Amino acid sequence: MHKRFRAFLYTTAASAIACSSAHAQTADNDAAPAGAAAVAVEDIIVTARRGNELLQDVPASITVFTEKALQQSGVTDTQELANLTAGVTIVTSTAEAGDTQVNIRGLNGARDAENNVALVVDGILKTNTAQLNQIQGRLVQAEVLKGPQGAYYGRNAAAGAIVLTTKKPGNALEVWGEGGIGENSLFYGRGSLSGPVTDTLGFVLFGDYKKTDGSYRNTGPDAHSAGATVDRFMGYNIGGRLYAESGPLTLDAKARYGKIDAAGLSFDVAFQLPGFAAALGNPLFNEDVNRRNFSFIGNIRPDNNQKTVEASLRAVYDFGGTTLTGWILYSDVDQDLLADSTSASLNRFASQPSCRATTAALFNAGFVLPSPQFLGPTPEASLFGPFGPTTCDGIQYQVREQKDISAELRLASSGDARFDWSLGAYYLHIDRHTGVAINDDQGAPAQLRLYTPAGSPNPTSLLFDDQFTTNVYAGFGSADYEVSDTLDISAALRFDREERRVDNLVPDVLDPATGQPINPGFALGPIASKKRVYEQLQPKISVAWTPSRQFTLFGNWGIGFKAGGFNQQGSNAVINANFNTPLGSNLKIEDEYRKERSSAFEAGFKLSALDSRFSLEGSAYYTRVTDMQFFEFFTGGFGLLRVVSNIDRVDLKGFEASANFRLVDGWTMFASGNVTDSKIKANATRPDTVGNKSPYTADYTLNLGTQMVAPLRDDLDIVFRADYRITGPTWFSTVQDQDRRTIFDLVFPGLGTANYKLTRRDAFGILNLRAGVQGKGWSLTVFADNALNRENIAEVIPAPEFGGSFVAPGALRTVGVQVGIDF
């Protein structure tokens, strides 16, 4: 961005802040901080438990974002919701666009497994993890419900639920839109058109577009991959909705199409080899991930493409006293990823002509690798990390395609009696194709195929390719009894049965580079298809005592469940051949992982005071997780491997609180925080990790913020909002302050033992600012995301037997300006 434009943005922001402060005392009550609303807390209606309830009455911890709060905080997707919610953290798009892991109170959604958070959009449950951070339309309310919700939403709601409500058509034509520009060539726009077609039928059209070059650049010598190729992003969605109400019948039909063209695998490597650091006098062989000076030099331009097609129909019929609700959803999400690979470190392709030629050419040109790597005239005389500038890493190509169709029927009472009930049934069918290939990089353009035969420009060296088929059947019910005007007891129960099958698609051929099968599982014989069934009963019991409209005490207990599943077939053979046999690692990684079960208790309170100007909530919780699913990453001379393992038992306990205070009309301050104490109690996969913290779980989160709306005149306001989020120290692996013998110890005996105490992400804070003016039907806003330009870590993936970690940086500061219309 031009320096004069940046200066203009900063000046505008500073002026708006000053004006907001000057006029705060006379502002009206038009603002709603995230987690609160412009109306009194006790008047907010939520649907997270599948029925309309007052927020104050819900016997659970729930954060609500009203339409006003969503607009004034700039929230459009799950990532932005998570960053404003205590006890919730998120990792998304570090590997690829559809790769999202949400952690709520220590329960994390393991990469390559199922969601641990139910995503519900306009009453319809979406189960594909790739949809979790997609823009779903123009949001008018968002709810984040914490704790196991399996009794209401099934196998993918162990940690909670995210319930989104989008724009419905009104009785008049409405046009809404906002667009902006910013640093790093940021450009975005989103808008909707809605209105009536007839007296009983209305429509909504929605679209969004975003493009950015990202915060980081590839500085390697390859012209094709250099430049803004590290975290670039381009994506758009278009969608439509028809909504009809005719007497007792309501019909809601929706369709959406989306595409993403982005970078992927925005990781750098940090080594954790203290023996090498001491022997060679180079501390970068044992590097703190928080001090990493990121260097992206890969010779392959990463390319991540995603296409989404979905359509749904929801019908509600009111019988007068009971309501029948049914819906059906079709979803098709296809994505692939082309990127540099990790095979250079152990010389998998060292004998290949292209690897030797590019190494010699870069050496002769005087190119210098980032320390502690070094470049010699041959691969054998070099020390390579992954994602390097030579062709010695190979090419990584991944495919993740999922089609699913789901349907539900639910019969419920009207909700206005002392006793309310519901009964229902659910079905889901999933066809999922997942493949990961490592292909020889011979310098020619990559072929976007999982298997390329010997003699092709980039023949396949390692391949995992499987077809997964899943059928889910569930029955559920709930009952709520108002014992008295102040005491309410509710119970819900759901049974899920999940039938899974995996079929190997890899041909039984040899790797031209090594002479071994391209899937190591073939070394033990044919790879047979497998079937498994996973079942779980998921109860939920809640109690609420409301002695007054302003105060509620509540408690609840529930069971959470995530089905087990299959790793890519041949995973166990890779682990045994490359780690267990040569290193004595004794890793218990199988081609199948077990189901996860959690038992969670919560008790808390909700208070509204000072004529609803002040609200305070607090809760304490304890969760015991059995067979927690956890993502592990392995790399070496064989290439790379992604698997899901199980941690036998993890205990999670903590507390959280939130407060909102409207000091005067138009000026609100808000704060929320969470502290989680996590501990691994048993772990047969890696027994020496017992006593460590649960991976991907921040020790604490703290959100602080303020919002002001100050009138300049009758039809013009100045708006200012600040959000500061502190995320506490976080481990990303079960292996923490432990030693591990690595593959380097086979080559350099005595030096190849790694220690991972420097892989914990330190606490960090991110400040987001928004300031501007708004009139009747329009607004102008200057924003600064990560306003202090705080360097931060998005994710750390230790590869314990490799001797290093893959580290993804978080986004740096983006300053921009946004224009909005609404009429």
Description:
With 823 residues, this protein is mainly beta. It has a single domain, classed as Beta Barrel (Maltoporin, Chain A), CATH 2.40.170. The protein is built from 7 helices and 41 strands. It has a 22-stranded antiparallel barrel. It has a 5-stranded mixed beta sheet with strand order 3-9-10-7-8. The chain is globular. The relative contact order is 0.14.
Under the CATH scheme, which architecture would be assigned? Beta Barrel
How far apart are the termini? 31 Å
Report the structural category. Answer: mainly beta
Number of helices: 7
Largest sheet: 22 strands, antiparallel, barrel
Q: How many domain modules?
A: 1
Question: Would you summarize the structure shown here?
Answer:
The protein is mainly beta and 823 residues long. 8% of the residues lie in helices and 51% in strands.
